[in-house]
Amino acid sequence: MKFPLKFGRSFFLVVSSGFCFLTLYLFLETWPLYKSYFAEEDIFYGNITSVAASRFWNGTNVPIFDKNYFCLNEDRNAVFVLALPLSQREVLGDWFRSWALEGALAPLEIRGKRISKNEWLVTGIEGNDGAMDASVISDFHLRTCLWSFVIDLFCLWITVHTLLRSVRRK
After folding, report:
1. Are the C-beta atoms of 49 and 73 separated by less than 8 Å?
2. 9-168 adopts what CATH topology?
3. Phi-psi bin for 156: left (phi > 0), alpha (psi -120 to 50), beta?
4. What is the pTM of this model?
5. pLDDT (tens digit per residue) in 108-159
6. Residue ranges of the domains in the chain?
7. Which residues pair with 114 in a beta bridge?
8. What's the rounded Cα separation, in Å, for the pair 159 and 19?
């Protein structure tokens, strides 16, 4: 199949580099999820003392990019990463709002897998106000890994295909 329009070599190089960047960015964003499948689960107890959201992706509801970060017991050397489905994020948001109004945080049991020297990916939270279903979180992580892998392969295929087209152009 031939295109009716003629595209130059520079067009294919720009498209190839754009998809290469997209592939790399998506892989680096999902790397903590991939890494967590080979880590042991640790259990932590304490109160949440600080909460932060990702800057650019906050509120977009893009599953892997819209992450929250928190610390327990004022320990800034241990950061917990929350990559949760929308339903779980809404429950957690209700918890955070109620704790902010009450002023006192309930002690929590946090289950997480180490993804770097001082970061853990949260796989479960239990407290006096309820618990987040660990199976829902693990299903979400698996689904996100599989979808991002498929999207990465597709973007990589487009990258290679357009790069080869640019090389073949005269």
Report:
1. yes
2. OB fold (Dihydrolipoamide Acetyltransferase, E2P) (2.40.50)
3. alpha
4. 0.76
5. 888 999 998 888 998 888 877 677 778 888 888 888 889 999 999 999 999 9
6. 9-168
7. 120
8. 5
